Amino acid sequence: MRVQRVAPPTATVLTGVEALRAEPRDESELVDQLRLDERVTVLADREGWAFVQGPDLYFGWVRSDRLRARTYKLGPVVSVTVAPRRRAPADDAPVIDHVSAGAVALKDGEKDWLRCGDGWVSARDCGSVRMGYPTPDDIVLAAEAFLGAPYLWGGVSALGIDCSGLTQQVYLLNGVGLPRDADQQALAGRPVDADRPPRRGDLLFFGDARVTHTAIATGERSYIHAPEKGGAVARGTIADAPQLLGIRRYLP
Fold first, then answer.
1. Residue of 98, 116, 126, 225 marked active site
2. 98 is catalytic
3. Quick check: is 225 catalytic?
4. What is the pLDDT of residues 132-178, one digit of tens each?
5. Which whole-number Å values give the CA distances from 31 to 26, 56, 138, 177, in the listed order?
6. Residue 209 host element (H or E)
7. Set 98, 116, 126, 163: catalytic member
């Protein structure tokens, strides 16, 4: 299945030490600090403030005039969840291995084939990268591309993936970095108040005494996840899940 990769803008910090704040105002809580020339990923802007993810993977707001925009352009990337990588640019060439969505492909003089590492991938399996801010709908669309992928403890691709591998890879395809494990992801981003429903793209965290499972919200009570018992990435509802321990949001 095809999946679009989103590449947010990036910027570098212009000041020696710059505040990263929880809200776009100077008196808001200090979340972290950014240092001169550090690179940040810009996920939104609002009235002179930029919502960014810094090198420590923390999210927060920084004044836009304290950043210098960086310009870059990505070429074609693998745009299916899994693509065969072949030894030569031909459909009947031996398959070396398989590569995941987002892998960079390079034009190399072959009309219908692109270089990918030391092998070749079909141009049919590649596409362009959308430059811009990722949205909640982008997160859900990326998650839907993994529906049916088999469960694999420790897996991070459509060949086999676990619950936190799914959430991490879906966000990575949208330019956002998350820690690897569910309990670590449950400490990143911002908590959603318990009396508020989740928004599309939020992560839901389940368990008994501690976080043991995570899922991507597709609505107020629905989600996509990689259940160990179900054996494949599937849709689910909060009513059918174990205890909901928390909701985290990583986009503004």
1. 225
2. no
3. yes
4. 999 999 999 999 999 999 999 999 999 999 999 999 999 999 999 99
5. 12, 11, 26, 17
6. none
7. 163
